[in-house]
Amino acid sequence: MNNVIEIRNLKKYYGKVKAVDDISFVVRKGEIFAFLGPNGAGKTTTLEIIEGLRKKDSGEIIFFEKYTSPQDFYIKEQIGVQLQNNAFFDNLTVYETLKMFGGLYKKSIEPIELINKMSLNEKKNAKVKELSGGQKQRLAIAVALVNDPEIVFLDEPTTGLDPQSRRNIWDIVLELKHQGKTIVLTTHYMEEAEYLADSVQIIDHGKIIAKGTVDKLIKLLNKESVIVFKSSNNKIFEEKFNGVIFDEKVEIKTDNVEDTLFNIMSFSKDKDIYLDDIVIRKPNLEDVFLNLTGRTLRE
Predict the structure, then answer these.
(1) CATH no. for residue 121?
(2) How far is CA 198 from CA 31, 34, 145, 184, in A?
């Protein structure tokens, strides 16, 4: 069995808003599968339909190549869900919270084992309301693992976290993969998808607009590098070199860094325009999305 989830022509409309617009994809056993897209793209709606939390309008959802309903009791026992917004009882401790959720399943992992896995040892007797944002996220993932699921759904697990807490969550996700779990992840952080994902689906306005490995998607650009800089007249560089302006900087894609950089510097000197913070970098998923949609992931 290679496919743990297969989605065929999934749709969910709210009046004229096509939240999920006829999408199809496959999630393979043991991979980290990432939905990448801006807020409102349809990532969470898609996950909630697959998880059985929201009704689809049409389409097929197939688990483990034979089960066709997320409401099937067997499927409920095989999936773990970390929601974008988690609602825990503030006055329960970390240990009590995990014990309570474990009681909902026929099979469950002992709370102490999960507490150790999530590095929450010092907080096992702390109340939920006393936890930091990063600690609450680790607790949410622990709850998603309490039934030792085959498939773990993580809906934007690092949103709002500081860089260190985000990297801690990344390490946990990679460890889950090493244990043989299948991870379905939504994120609007392109660097998160680049670091974690085996397979990426870029979704925008309810449609999948590109899919494949990170390397495959980046190769779609047919560009080797991006030159990024500030100037005293960004607009003129945008027009002259067919660039884009993002975050008060000019970004110019090129397959010949040396010649393009020389031309930029010469043009700057001729026009007496000040340049600063020049950076040369390889293209990434942000560039892929910008190329496909004309906007950034965070717009």
Answers:
(1) 3.40.50.300
(2) 6, 8, 21, 11
Question: Among 5, 3, 78, 30, which Cα is nearest to 180's?
Answer: 30
Q: Which two tokens stand for residue 140?
A: 């949410």
pTM: 0.81
What is the C-alpha R_g of the chain?
22
Our separate counts of H helices and E strands in the chain read 11, 13
Task: Please tell me whether residues 271 and 143 are part of one structural domain.
Answer: no
CA distances from 245 to 220, 234, 250, 252 (A): 21, 7, 5, 9
Q: Is the pLDDT of residue 298 over 60?
A: no
Q: Is 59 left (phi over 0), alpha (psi -120 to 50) or beta?
A: left
**Residue 142 DSSP SS3:** helix
DSSP designation for 130: G
Decide: 151 and 79 in contact? Cβ < 8 Å: yes
Lowest mean pLDDT among 62-71, 139-148, 218-227: 218-227
Pairing of strands 151-155, 32-36: unpaired
Question: Do 178 and 270 fall into the same domain?
Answer: no
Structural domain total, the chain: 2
Nearest to 197 by CA among 172, 167, 177: 177
Confidence of residue 221 (pLDDT cuts 50, 70, 90): confident
